[in-house]
Design a protein that fits this description.
This protein is mostly helical. It has helices at residues 10-22, 27-36, 41-59, 65-86.
Length: 87
């Protein structure tokens, strides 16, 4: 794998080098690990879609905005009733 050169301020390099050393890594290994860690926006979107599909399969389809509003109002009524009983 070919290496790449990245120009950053000396202070940033010093901070990264110190962070790498704190974890017992070379700067190169630390940067490789950092690059591998966070998902890209595309990967995050794909993960979110897989999560939505799994939740939909497990819980059923998400309620429409109108249904969500109706359910929220019902929950508010029930909570108000429960608070009145405890007072």
């Amino acid at each position: 794998m070919p290496d790449a050169t990245i120009r950053i301020p000396a202070e940033a390099k010093e901070r990264l080098t110190a962070a790498a050393a704190g974890e017992g890594l070379s700067l190169r290994a630390y940067l490789v690990r950092l690059a591998d860690a966070p998902p890209t926006p595309q990967e995050r979107a794909e993960q979110a879609e897989r999560a939505r599909a799994a939740l939909s399969q497990w819980l059923g389809p998400a309620p429409s905005p109108e249904e969500r509003q109706r359910l929220d109002e019902e929950l508010d009524r029930r909570l108000a009733r429960a608070v009145d009983r405890s007072a």
